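Quick start: what a row looks like.
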Amino acid sequence: MCGIAGWVSLNTTRSSQDHNEAALHSMCERIKHRGPDSEGLWFDEEVALGMRRLSVIDLHTGDQPVYSEDRSVVVIMNGELYNYREVRADLEKLGHEFETNSDTEILPHLYQQYGDAMVDFINGMFVFAVWDRTKKKLLIARDRFGEKPLYYGVVDGKLIFASEPKAMLVHASVKQEINLDALRQYLSFDYVPAPLSIYKGISKLPAAHLLTVEKGEVNTRRYWNLTWQKPDRKEGLNGTGISHKAGELRELLSDAVRMRLVSDVPLGILLSGGVDSSTVAAFATQHATEKVKTFSIGFEEDSFDESKFAREVAMHLGTEHYEEMLSAETAGDMIADIGTWLDEPLSDGSMVPTFLLSRFVRKHVTVALGGDGGDELFAGYPMYFGHKMANVYDSIPSFLRTGVIEPIINNLPVSTKNLSFDYKAKRFVAASKYDTVTRHHSWFGSFTLDEQRHLLTEDVLANTAADIYAGPKNLLKICDAKDQIEQMQFLDINYYMAEDILTKVDRASMAVSLEVRAPFLDPRVAQFAASLPPEYKLKGYKGKYILKKAVEDLLPKSILQRPKKGFGIPIAEWLKGRLNPLMHDLLAHRRLKEQGLFEADYVQNLMGEHEKGTASHHKQLWTLLVFQLWHDNFLE
């Protein structure tokens, strides 16, 4: 695992004062947490390539950059290539010779053999940059699901790129300005979806995309996509069909875990006690050559402590289990520090416990496997069933919905819990009037389009695009799924998972130099899941039906049957208690008026209603609080 940074000139006749080793070294130093073990720099007249390395594979000869035999191709990479041994063997049969045992070294040879199509041969998580010295061409590729990040921008006649925007911000050519359209996206989704970033002039390379720079032109294109087409089938859901498919899934997941256990440094499993992470742990115990280490954190407060489930799974599987018990105050105390390492706003509350877990795990191992991807691929989120309910709700006569049901729902007593029944019910009916895409993201996100008209100042509204959900609607045009739920899964894979879940895990883990791998995101597993009938994934109101069937003899029944629960913190309560002074400081009326982005009176009203208990605005207030933490650290 590493961090990469660099630039390429778009005009060969133009010299640059900052085309020097000191500028590149400064960028790499800013992401030293991603790779504390070594630094590699490479220059020619047009390109600068730099990287920081976290040594995981080939500890002694695996430094970067790496080269082709004739040194005409130079490569730097952030990530891991899980099938590098098989690919290397195939390349050796074609006459290629290697100098190291590094996974990265297959890349220059793949490029020489297959050009841009090299990505078709790779199973891994990665962002890599290839410099072809002969063609004067730069190729950058991001993995299929966006496990590893890549930011870039064109300024002062060159394309500058890095694993994190904070590395770009130290370059003299890059300005620290907010992208107001990205702000609106953040308020809608709780994250900024690619290709935007929160910074004006800086873009994110979307997952499964290539970026090329050649003859002064910058181009991006998608190189891979899931297909949701279904093979002809005669078997019924309760017949031999699903049993056979469950067996296939089991074999694919088992092999995906096996491939991700390859490491030259200590490795463990992030174990929450949910189905996904428990499945990864179960297969790891089958393939590991030594006792598997599992890790979880718990909280002294019973209201959101999940550690007992992880403990149950660890005992069932016989793992070497490590657990750290924390006070909720520990999590609360670090919230003010989020902005120091989170260089783009992300309001996922589970970011805090994810960071605490990563920090604990890093004391023992350098690499960990997690369960990310299971909910998106196998329809594990309650919102998928929510769409079924919304279709039923839409069939109820309008006068009953607006005259009877909605008044009853909207007058339910307000709970102090984050995702209480009253909170979910009110969001459900509020979004029922929208189209499917808008409804889906309204359930996930914080501020609807209507709410943003009250929240944002006239100046911001006048200078931004109003169609917040144009991105996901346009993305659906390249999705071949016919089923409504599968279309939402496709959007979640490309939006929520890529830009929230995987970004959260990457930032929280790499902040402490921990590499996290996701077996569910093996492209073979993902494509298999997409090819399954929808009812194999969401049966009635039960999500992940086939996944649970595939591992039913490996895990305790209590784990398979427990309801899904997020990995969060009690934000609603904290905004009334321990976080209340911070909230009032960051969202003070005077501060918001000077900032000129948000209507101060509207925000004050949100805080007042939440504190009085007349409404629960914890999600909106948390989203604004995280934005202000970022703003204070990276724009002021």
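That is the whole record. The longest helix spans residues 484-510. Residues 108 and 198 are 33 Å apart (CA to CA).
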